Every structure is written in C-alpha cells, then in structure tokens.
TrEMBL record:
<dbReference type="InterPro" id="IPR050645">
    <property type="entry name" value="Histidine_acid_phosphatase"/>
</dbReference>
<comment type="similarity">
    <text>Belongs to the histidine acid phosphatase family.</text>
</comment>
<dbReference type="GO" id="GO:0003993">
    <property type="term" value="F:acid phosphatase activity"/>
</dbReference>
<feature type="signal peptide">
    <location>
        <begin position="1"/>
        <end position="18"/>
    </location>
</feature>
<dbReference type="InterPro" id="IPR029033">
    <property type="entry name" value="His_PPase_superfam"/>
</dbReference>
<dbReference type="InterPro" id="IPR033379">
    <property type="entry name" value="Acid_Pase_AS"/>
</dbReference>
<dbReference type="GO" id="GO:2001311">
    <property type="term" value="P:lysobisphosphatidic acid metabolic process"/>
</dbReference>
<dbReference type="Pfam" id="PF00328">
    <property type="entry name" value="His_Phos_2"/>
</dbReference>
<protein>
    <recommendedName>
        <fullName>acid phosphatase</fullName>
        <ecNumber>3.1.3.2</ecNumber>
    </recommendedName>
</protein>
<dbReference type="GO" id="GO:0005739">
    <property type="term" value="C:mitochondrion"/>
</dbReference>
<dbReference type="GO" id="GO:0052642">
    <property type="term" value="F:lysophosphatidic acid phosphatase activity"/>
</dbReference>
<keyword id="KW-0732">Signal</keyword>
<dbReference type="InterPro" id="IPR000560">
    <property type="entry name" value="His_Pase_clade-2"/>
</dbReference>
Length: 228
C-alpha cells in the first residue's frame, strides 16, 4: 500500500506535466552523458535546472493487521504506526531536507503551500507517516496551513481497490484460500500453528504469520519497512 505522493513544484500544476518534466530532465542528463562519452563537448550540467521532485513513499513500521491469537498488542490497535515507524518517516524527511534544501537549494527551509502538494490515502497510519515525514523535512516550520489531500475509499487508486474494480475482485476471489489448500501447504501450516501454539481452528494462514513476523522484526530494527 502506498502511503502517499509528495510532490514539490515551483512552476507547473501537479499532473501529467510532472511526468513530462521528469522525462525531459532524464533525457537531458542522458544526452549530456552520451555527448561526453563520444568525445564531443559535454553539456555543462550547471545549465540544467531541477524543476520538480515527486517522492512516492510507504508508511513506516506498523503493528500487525491481524495479530496472532496468542499475542498481546500492548495497547496498540491493528495496523497502527509504531514509534519505530514514526522515527523511520522523520528520518526520511531529514534525508529529503538534506537533498533538496541543503545540498540543492530547491525547497524553502520552511514549509510553503505554494511549493508543496501532498497526497495520501485516508488511512490513519499513512496520514501519520506523512506528518512525520513533513516534520523531518521542514523541522516543524511552516508559512501556511499543511493540507494533506485524500480521496474517498471507493475511488482511491493508490492501493488495490476492491470496492471499485470488478476485475480485481474476480481475480482475487478465492486465491488466498486456494493457495492454502495446495498439496503440502496445508500440512506445513498445521505444523507451524502447532509449533507456535495457535489453535488449528483459528483462521491463521502463512500471510498472517509473515505479517506478524515482519512486525516483530521491526521492533528491533531488523527490517526497514513493513508490508501493506
């Protein structure tokens, strides 16, 4: 699941022009490299100017979407952004600040709504991740209100949306259950559940187990980012 789309602009609206600007920039850089490699006079890179930056990122570490029956959440709800996840996003914001405020003076050091467009899915862990990233990027300094744009759940396109895509629903229907019934899979799952003390009647499959393992690993910082 994509957490958000963070677009920085100083000359055009967000949209198709953003992709066009990026492609043009990549082409100019490639041409400059090719001309230099052929022995011709290389293009002076100081003449190239950064026009737009788009950052697409996921949320930080979270708690499991479906905790195992034998686990305690410790006061957290399913899928909640953890303290580790908050720090991950704040650190990412600091890295972006170094790249686009300090090393390249592209962004103002203080948040300016005329320069930045922010888009996120309307899920709490994603909104919190976006806020943490912005805090790291602008160090809590702003010149105007920070608006995080979202969409309604039924029309969201930043994650696989089963509500508004009939084809996606048809393709996904029954696949998870069918995978668990593959030869050897159901037997392996039964052994794993017995080994960790999960009742055989509990609806726990390998995807749920993987999600819980990944969340547990992130508590110690051994994983960088979580699943969906």
């Amino acid at each position: 699941m994509i957490t958000g789309v963070f677009s920085v602009r100083v000359w055009t609206p967000v949209g198709v022009l953003a992709s066009l600007a990026y492609c043009l920039h990549q082409r100019r850089v490639a041409l400059a490299e090719l001309q230099g490699a052929d022995g011709q006079r290389p293009v002076d890179r100081s003449l190239l100017k950064l026009k737009m930056v788009q950052v697409v990122f996921r949320h930080g570490a979270r708690s499991p979407l479906k905790p195992l029956p034998l686990e305690e959440q410790g006061g957290m709800f399913a899928g909640q952004l953890t303290k580790v996840g908050m720090q991950q996003m704040f650190t990412l914001g600091e890295r972006l600040r170094k790249n686009y405020v300090e090393d390249i003076p592209f962004l103002s050091p203080t948040f300016n709504p005329q320069e930045v467009f922010i888009r996120s899915t309307n899920i709490f862990r994603n909104l919190e991740s976006t806020r943490c990233l912005l805090a790291g990027l602008f160090q809590c300094q702003k010149e105007g209100p920070i608006i995080i744009h979202t969409d309604e759940a039924h029309s969201e396109v930043l994650y696989p949306n089963y509500q508004n895509c009939w084809s996606l629903r048809q393709r996904a229907r029954g696949r998870r259950q069918a995978a668990s019934l593959q030869p050897g899979i159901s037997e392996d799952l039964k052994k794993v559940k017995e080994g960790i003390g999960v009742d055989s009647s509990d609806e726990v499959d390998f995807l749920i187990l993987l999600d819980n393992v990944a969340a547990e690993q992130e508590k110690t910082g051994s994983c960088r980012f979580h699943g969906s």
